[in-house]
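Form 12-C: Joint structure prediction
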Amino acid sequence: MSIVKEHVGTRMKQYASEWFTAQPLLDVSLSFIEEKLGETMMFGELTAIHYHMFRGKDADIEGAAAAVELFILASDILDDLEDGDAPSKPWMKAPMPIALHVATSLVTLSQQALLLSAADPALRGELAIMMNKQLLLSANGQMLDLANDTLTEESYFQMVRSKSASLLVMACMAGVLLAGRPWNETVAEYAAELGISAQIRNDCRDLLRWDEKSDFLNRKHTLLTMYLLEGPDEQVGWIRDYYNGSGSQNDATGKKELFLQACEQSGVILYGSVVSRMHYNRFQELLAELQADAVWKDKLLHLLAGGQSA
Amino acid sequence: MLKDTIRQLVSSTEKMSLALGGQPQFAGVSAAEHKALLNEMNNKHEKNGYAFIWN
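Section 2 - Result
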C-alpha cells in the first residue's frame, strides 16, 4: 500500500494540533477530520501513487497526502455550506460562522502542510504555484456551478474541467513535483479526464437520488439533465415545465415514480455512463503512454477500480 | 450520434437484444463512443469497474 489511511488521518490531526492553537478551532477541526476519515480518501492516495510512480524518495509523502486531504475536506465543507444540503454532516450541524471559519482555516492549513512536505525552498515555490493555480481554477468552476447556468454541453464541460478536474490535477501533480519532476502534461491531461469521468458518474447518482441533493428536485443543469430535457413531450414535457419554473418542489417530490420512469425510458443513465466511460477510457490510454513505473501505474488502476493501491 | 443511438436502443427491445448479443449496429457513432457503449452495456449488471472519487 502506498499510504495507510489511518496514518494520513493522524497527520491531518497533527497538523491541526500544531497550528490551531485556539482550542475551539482545534476541537471543531478534529471533529470534522474524524468525519472525513469515515469517507473515501482517494485524493491523498493519488498524490502518494504519483510520487512513487516517478520514483520519489526524499519528501514527506504522508504529510503531502494529509495536506491534500485537508484541502478536500475544506472543499467538501464549503460545497455543503454553499449548497445548503447534507444535514447529517457535523459542519452542517455547527453554527454557520463556526463551520465557515473552520473550512477557511483548513484551506490555509492544507497549503502550509503541503509546503512543509518538501525541504527544498525552490520546490516549495513550485508546489505553491501549482496548488494555487489549480485551486483558483476550481474556485472559478464552483462559481459557474453555483450560478447553475451551464445550459450547453460546451459550458458544462468547461465548468467540470475547472471545478472538478482541477482538483484531480492538483492531487496527482503534487506527487509528481514532490518526486523532483517538472509539471507533466500527460499526467495533467489524464487527471483531467479522470475528473470529468468521476463528475459525470456523480451526476448519474445525483440525478436518481430523491433527497436534498437531488439534481432534479433542485432543477440543476448537468449533462444528463440536458439530455433528459431534449426528450419528447409525452416523456419529459412535465420535467421541462418544472425546469422552466412551473410548480413547486413539493409538487415535484410526489412524482418520483414518474421521474424514474422517464429516466428509464430515455436512457439517460446509460448515456451518462457511456460519456463517463469514454473519459475513463481516454484516461487509461494516456496512462498507458506515460513513461513511469509500471507497478505503480497498475496500483493506480487498482485503486480506481475500487480497491486500495496495493 | 451517440444520443440518438441510445434513444433508439432503449426504445427497442430488439435493437437492445442485438446489441447485447454482440451484433451492434451503431451508425454515426465514433470509435471511442462505440467502445464506451459496449463497455457499459456489457457491465450493466456488474460493478462498473471504477470507483466514485467524490463522496
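Section 3 - Comments
The CA atoms of residues 23 and 42 of chain B lie 13 Å apart. The mean pLDDT of chain B is 79.
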